[in-house]
């Protein structure tokens, strides 16, 4: 594996840090893009590897955002595009969520076409929200696969931040496919579409008050007091270490070329998470989860997902919920 240099956009993100960690462990050299030199230095100090360097890309959506970074690194042959906004507290849904995701993806692909002719493999971090129907499109009877698309329209994506996030993933993927069809670049693109991503941070947690969006699901339960109510919520989960590993498979395995890989381990409910925390951390203040509520919650919250095609390409067993929760909570509770 040594000798290959991989570019990781948004390298200081939750999933991206695990990708960087796994790439370095396998002997790859890594160039990461970050939004500022302070973020770059912070990541460099965490990574502690002479095979890691960073470039500053302040705004994904700006035309030519990645041009200089790629001009400086003709040694890069693989590009992993993980950078995309993930936030539900935005002022302008189109400006803060949709456009940066769509334009950032197209900018990355354009830069690779113009300034990275040696790059042959591109992997884009999408999300299963681009595959599954949510809210009014939730369908508990349908079996969703890699071929499915969330029916949400661009106009509906502007209605609220959650819809904006769903739309940002769907329309960024479609923009990438449109680019490939029109531009006929000499690189292949694969997509990694994870469900809710749980699991520990790749390196030490600096601020436990607010973790990233999906890791915050477990953090939210871990912070509950004995008399707090557990919300009747559930969905599908996958461990962040498996999502990172899927990105490596997506460019290492020829079978993954041009595929959308749904990465999903199993269903979860907040009651299941609370139950696991109680089993393993008896001194916690978390209320005991009521597992008898799970079937009812599943009916209205959890879609049926068949990711067997993706699992075959991935070729590894996915981390179960219990291990993912325990490893996450250990990190949250540790001083």
TrEMBL record:
Gene3D superfamilies, per database record: NAD(P)-binding Rossmann-like Domain
NAD-dependent epimerase/dehydratase domain segment(s): 6-257
Keyword terms: Oxidoreductase
UniProt cross-references to Pfam families, sorted A to Z: Epimerase
Coiled coil: none
Molecular function terms from GO: oxidoreductase activity, acting on the CH-OH group of donors, NAD or NADP as acceptor
InterPro entries, alphabetized: Epimerase_deHydtase (IPR001509), NAD(P)-bd_dom_sf (IPR036291), NAD(P)_dehydrat-like (IPR050425)
Family named by the database record: Belongs to the NAD(P)-dependent epimerase/dehydratase family. Dihydroflavonol-4-reductase subfamily.
PANTHER family to which the protein is assigned, alphabetical: NAD DEPENDENT EPIMERASE/DEHYDRATASE, STEROL-4-ALPHA-CARBOXYLATE 3-DEHYDROGENASE, DECARBOXYLATING
Protein name, entry field: NAD-dependent epimerase/dehydratase domain-containing protein
Organism, as annotated: Spathaspora passalidarum (strain NRRL Y-27907 / 11-Y1)
Lineage, highest ranks first: Eukaryota, Fungi, Dikarya, Ascomycota, Saccharomycotina
């Amino acid at each position: 594996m040594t000798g290959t240099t991989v570019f990781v956009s948004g390298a200081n993100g939750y999933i991206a840090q695990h990708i960087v960690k796994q790439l370095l462990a396998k002997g790859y050299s890594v160039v990461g893009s970050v939004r500022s030199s302070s973020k770059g230095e912070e990541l460099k100090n965490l990574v502690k590897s002479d095979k890691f360097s960073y470039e500053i890309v302040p705004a994904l959506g700006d035309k030519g955002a990645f041009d200089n970074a790629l001009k400086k690194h003709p040694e890069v042959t693989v590009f992993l595009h993980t950078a995309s906004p993930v936030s539900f507290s935005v002022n302008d849904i189109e400006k803060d969520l949709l456009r940066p995701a769509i334009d950032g993806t197209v900018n990355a692909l354009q830069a690779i076409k113009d300034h990275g002719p040696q790059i042959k493999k591109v992997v884009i971090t999408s999300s299963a929200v681009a595959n599954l129907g949510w809210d009014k499109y939730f369908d508990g009877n349908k079996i969703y696969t890699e071929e499915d698309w969330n029916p949400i329209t661009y106009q509906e994506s502007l209605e609220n931040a959650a819809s904006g996030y769903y739309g940002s993933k769907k329309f960024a993927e479609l923009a990438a496919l449109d680019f490939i069809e029109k531009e006929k670049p000499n690189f292949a693109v694969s997509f990694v579409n994870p469900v809710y991503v749980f699991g520990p941070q790749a390196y030490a947690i600096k601020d436990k008050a607010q973790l990233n969006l999906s890791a915050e699901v477990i953090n939210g339960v871990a912070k509950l007091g004995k008399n707090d109510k557990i919300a009747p919520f559930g969905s599908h989960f996958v461990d962040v270490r498996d999502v990172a590993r899927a990105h490596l498979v997506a460019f290492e395995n020829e079978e993954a070329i041009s595929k959308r890989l749904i990465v999903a381990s199993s269903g979860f409910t907040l009651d299941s998470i609370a139950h696991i925390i109680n089993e393993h951390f008896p001194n916690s203040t978390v209320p005991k989860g009521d597992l008898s509520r799970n079937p009812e919650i599943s009916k209205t919250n959890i879609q049926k997902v068949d990711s067997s095609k993706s699992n075959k390409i991935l070729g590894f067993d996915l981390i179960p919920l219990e291990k993912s929760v325990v490893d996450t909570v250990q990190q949250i509770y540790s001083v």
